[in-house]
């Protein structure tokens, strides 16, 4: 038994002195491996008489368990120390100036949303946000979508699994639910922009399952179509920064506005090149209209007292037109070469006085 006690002290000392995981594993192998010291003693139990074998075997099992526990405890301590050392060595001083070769750039989507917000800010518009996951009421019913509208079909909308009560949520197909929530919780007058992600089942060169929209809403007692046209005309001219830009409003249909219109801007297509400005062709850029009385009523606003207008545009679409980006899918490819080409400096804040896209 004196031999076991001496072995115990030696092995525990070796475990305690192990300075890293490699040396600790070497101690484990030398003690408990196939040719380890404890293993060798256990193999010699067969040559002992029954009484001695029983007593020695019990003592060896106790020793084996004690060494195993010591090894595990030491391993945990060494791992924690190694993590602490690594964290200390890899600390980054975020106050240091960025290296020129690693300068970050703003994505064109972020820049375009900032440009749109900057144009509408002097008109009194405030930015409002809402959840990406919506219920049927805010996404469809409150916006005057009839029960059989195609947008409610599974092939057009990302629906979540049915809940126990038979209802189901969905990924919003537009940012219009933000307008509904604002009207429900805010007393007119209202003047907001609602930028954000939206989701629809579509994917090709001009469509992606996830994209961005900016929608605007104005509710007041004396709002009319003339205000809407003036607002849109000022926005389009400021955003595209093209003098004498031709603009036209075409009658259209949306469930949530009446009357409704789509807005086109002049362009020319020559030699495979699209140019914004005076030309023989037209290009659609956004939809708009006077808010339908049913939408006001569903949101708790009296349509006999208030009226308003709304508009919506695709962020990627107007960014592609302004900055000459040919494929919508490249916005989401995470290609640093693309971002270095189309990105914006982090401090290049758009202003109407200094220029939107300097």
Topology record:
Blueprint lengths: L1 H16 L3 H12 L4 H7 L6 H40 L15 E2 L1 H13 L5 E2 L5 E2 L1 H4 L30 E2 L4 H10 L4 E10 L10 E11 L4 H16 L6 E8 L2 E14 L2 E4 L4 E11 L1 H6 L8 E8 H9 L12 H7 L1 E2 L13
Parallel strand pairs: 2-5
Antiparallel strand pairs: 1-12, 3-4, 5-6, 6-11, 7-8, 8-9, 8-10, 10-11
Helix pairs in contact: 1-4, 2-4, 5-8, 5-10
Task: Describe the overall structure.
- The protein has 358 residues and is an alpha+beta fold.
- It has two domains: 2-89; 105-345, 2-Layer Sandwich (BirA Bifunctional Protein, domain 2), CATH 3.30.930.10.
- The chain contains eleven helices and twelve strands.
- It has helices spanning 2-17, 21-32, 37-43, 50-89, 108-120, 136-139, 176-185, 225-240, 293-298, 315-323, 336-342, and strands spanning 105-106, 126-127, 133-134, 170-171, 190-199, 210-220, 247-254, 257-270, 273-276, 281-291, 307-314, 344-345.
- The strands form three sheets. Strands 2, 5, 6, 7, 8, 9, 10 and 11 form an eight-stranded mixed sheet that branches. A two-stranded antiparallel sheet has the order 1-12. Strands 3-4 form a two-stranded antiparallel sheet.
- β7 (247-254) and β8 (257-270) form a beta hairpin.
- α5 (108-120) crosses α8 (225-240).
- It is elongated.
- The termini are far apart.
- The model has no long low-confidence stretch (mean pLDDT 86).
């Amino acid at each position: 038994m004196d031999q076991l006690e001496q072995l115990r002290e030696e092995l525990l000392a070796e475990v305690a002195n192990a300075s890293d995981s490699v040396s600790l594993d070497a101690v484990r192998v030398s003690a408990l491996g196939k040719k380890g010291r404890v293993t060798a003693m256990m193999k010699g139990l067969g040559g002992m008489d029954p009484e001695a074998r029983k007593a020695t075997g019990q003592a060896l099992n106790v020793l084996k368990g004690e060494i195993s526990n010591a090894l595990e405890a030491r391993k945990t301590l060494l791992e924690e120390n190694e993590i602490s050392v690594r964290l200390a060595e890899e600390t980054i001083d975020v106050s240091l100036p960025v290296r020129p070769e690693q300068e970050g750039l703003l994505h064109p989507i972020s820049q375009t949303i900032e440009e749109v917000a900057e144009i509408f800010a002097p008109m009194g518009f405030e930015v409002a946000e809402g959840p990406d996951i919506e219920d049927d009421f805010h996404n469809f019913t409150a916006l005057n979508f009839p029960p059989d509208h195609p947008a409610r079909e599974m092939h057009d909308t990302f629906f979540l699994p049915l809940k126990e009560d038979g209802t189901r949520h969905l990924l919003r197909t537009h940012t219009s639910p933000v307008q509904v929530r604002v009207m429900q919780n805010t007393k007119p007058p209202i003047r907001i922009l609602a930028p954000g992600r939206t989701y629809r089942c579509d994917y090709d060169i001009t469509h992606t399952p996830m994209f961005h929209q900016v929608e605007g809403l104005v509710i007041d007692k004396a709002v009319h179509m003339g205000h809407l046209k003036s607002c849109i005309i000022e926005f389009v001219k400021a955003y595209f920064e093209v003098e004498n830009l031709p603009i036209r409003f075409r009658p259209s249909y949306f469930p949530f506005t009446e009357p409704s219109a789509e807005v086109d801007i002049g362009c020319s297509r020559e030699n495979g090149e699209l140019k914004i400005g005076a030309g023989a062709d037209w290009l659609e850029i956004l939809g708009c209209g006077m808010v339908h009385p049913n939408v006001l009523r569903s949101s708790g606003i009296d349509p006999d007292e208030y009226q308003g207008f709304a508009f919506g545009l695709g962020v990627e679409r107007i960014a592609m037109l302004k900055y000459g980006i040919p494929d919508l899918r490249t916005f989401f490819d995470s290609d640093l070469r693309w971002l270095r080409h189309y990105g914006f400096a982090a401090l290049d804040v758009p202003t109407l006085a200094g220029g939107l896209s300097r």
